């Protein structure tokens, strides 16, 4: 059995989503399904329960999830010992980031960083915010390129803000506000509001409707969806609702939606580099120093 199959199994057991797990492993969903089928045949048991709406681990799958991590840990430890003995040891740095919102920064910076630090293996993981925070907390990732509203205090991690992003409102192109260009939150609040379901994303309110609260503006919430992508998809068909979102997520909008900047400018989103001060990976300091130099010499907009 190839060790990569255990990596795939562990990732799928964390995400419980074949499509997302396949994307993160850079393979197709049918290939991942075949690999998991092979593992189930190898162990002679069902590891996942699947239907059209959900994926969950069986009791045996949960057991294998624990044991697979032990195997991976032992494998990587042995690999490090052998590489150190043969002089092939390389340092590692794991980075989590929020999709296309941060890619422009990573592409510009990582190319040069890798050239200057050939002894460091840099691994990047595209994540949702909730996943990214968990990866940082558990030190599965060393650094994170994340987004945070400026009124939301960061008590858990150290951070280096490097770019600001304005608050915007997304509407269908047939919405009465669509031709305005810039609108006030008061005007937006007069229309039904949709947002991400807090049961799916705990900080949903802070990243959307809390902006109304900052200005003591009442609003009417009419619908919540599993994620921001689904919210944007529904804007394509609903021409009387509005969605608060940061400008950098504009790529999620379809052809029938437009993004308008909010006139009020006391609150915005910060794009920032985040890390846990308890993480002892020495590559973190090296990365931070190089990134600070990069920020001084390279325009990001």
Automatic annotation (TrEMBL):
Q: Does the keyword Transcription apply?
A: yes
Q: Which Pfam families match?
A: HTH_1, LysR_substrate
Q: Which InterPro entries does the entry link to? A: LysR_HTH_N, LysR_subst-bd, WH-like_DNA-bd_sf, WH_DNA-bd_sf
* GO cellular component annotations of the record: protein-DNA complex
Report the SUPFAM superfamilies cross-referenced here.
Periplasmic binding protein-like II, Winged helix' DNA-binding domain
Q: Give UniProt keywords alphabetically.
A: DNA-binding, Transcription, Transcription regulation
Classification of source organism? Bacteria, Pseudomonadati, Pseudomonadota, Gammaproteobacteria, Enterobacterales
Task: State the organism of origin.
Answer: Brenneria rubrifaciens
Q: Domain HTH lysR-type spans what residues?
A: 1-58
Concerning Gene3D superfamilies, the annotation shows: Periplasmic binding protein-like II, Winged helix-like DNA-binding domain superfamily/Winged helix DNA-binding domain
Name this protein carries in UniProt: LysR family transcriptional regulator
| Similarity comment: family membership | Belongs to the LysR transcriptional regulatory family.
Question: Molecular function terms in GO for this entry?
Answer: DNA binding; DNA-binding transcription factor activity
């Amino acid at each position: 059995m190839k060790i990569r199959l255990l990596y795939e199994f562990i990732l799928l057991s964390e995400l419980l989503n074949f499509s997302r797990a396949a994307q993160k492993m850079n393979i197709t969903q049918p290939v991942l399904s075949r690999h998991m089928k092979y593992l189930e045949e190898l162990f002679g048991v069902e590891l996942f329960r699947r239907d059209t709406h959900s994926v969950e681990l069986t009791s045996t799958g949960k057991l294998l999830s624990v044991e697979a991590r032990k195997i991976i840990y032992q494998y990587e430890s042995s690999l490090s010992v052998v590489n150190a003995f043969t002089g092939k040891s390389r340092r590692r740095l794991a980075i989590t980031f929020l999709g296309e919102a941060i890619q422009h920064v990573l592409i510009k910076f990582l190319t040069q960083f890798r050239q200057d630090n050939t002894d460091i293996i840099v691994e990047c993981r595209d994540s949702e915010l909730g996943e990214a925070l968990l990866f940082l907390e558990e030190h599965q990732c060393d650094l994170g390129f994340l987004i945070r509203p400026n009124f939301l205090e960061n008590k858990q991690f150290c951070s280096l803000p490097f770019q600001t992003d304005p608050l915007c409102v997304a509407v269908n192109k047939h919405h009465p506000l669509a031709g305005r260009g810039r609108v006030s939150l008061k005007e937006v609040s007069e229309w039904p509001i949709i947002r991400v379901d807090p049961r799916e994303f705990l900080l949903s309110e802070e990243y959307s409707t809390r902006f109304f609260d900052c200005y003591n503006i009442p609003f009417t919430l009419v619908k919540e969806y599993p994620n921001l992508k689904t919210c944007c998809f529904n804007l394509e068909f609903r021409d009387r609702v509005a969605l608060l979102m940061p400008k950098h997520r504009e790529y999620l909008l379809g052809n029938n939606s437009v993004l308008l900047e909010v006139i009020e400018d006391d609150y915005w989103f910060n794009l920032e580099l985040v890390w846990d001060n308890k993480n002892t990976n020495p590559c973190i300091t090296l990365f931070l120093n190089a990134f600070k130099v990069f920020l001084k010499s390279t325009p990001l907009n």
